[in-house]
Amino acid sequence: MRDERQAALAARTDMLTGTSDFADLDEPAVAVLDMAQVTRAAPPLRTVEPLPCIRLAEPFEQLRDASDRRLAETGSRPKIFLANLGVPADFSPRANFAVNFFAAGGIAAAP
């Protein structure tokens, strides 16, 4: 199930709002709390291996981290130019999709 979900996210058939869709390249960094493992006082009736902790957004975060390093080194993110031809009604939906698509990987659309 996990592999299917990760494949769907990679193919963008599933979405993580704020990560794979509608990414904000200018959002401030967040801190993630590290949780201590819970121990029980009484011995368990059976031993159960906990599920590994994963973040579905991690592949996107790696791309965004590379973009952040580029920003720190050069003062600008990787950019792409979108040549929108015609009136805004003709290209706005496609242009918005492209801006969101590239922002998920840390690439900014040039104005």
Describe this structure in words.
The chain is mainly alpha-helical and 111 residues long. The chain is 39% helix and 5% strand. It contains three helices and two strands, in the order H-H-E-H-E. Helix 3 links the parallel strand 1 (79-81) and strand 2 (108-110).
Distance between the termini: 40 Å
Our estimate of the beta-strand percent is 5-15%
Query: Which structural category fits the helices and strands?
Result: mainly alpha
Sequence of strands across the biggest β-sheet: 1-2
* Overall pLDDT confidence: 87
- Which percent range fits the helix content? 25-40%
Q: For the report, how would you describe the main beta sheet?
A: 2 strands, parallel
Pick out the low-confidence regions.
Answer: none
Protein traits:
two-stranded parallel ribbon; 39% helix; 111 residues; mainly alpha
Brief summary:
α3 (88-104) links the parallel β1 and β2.
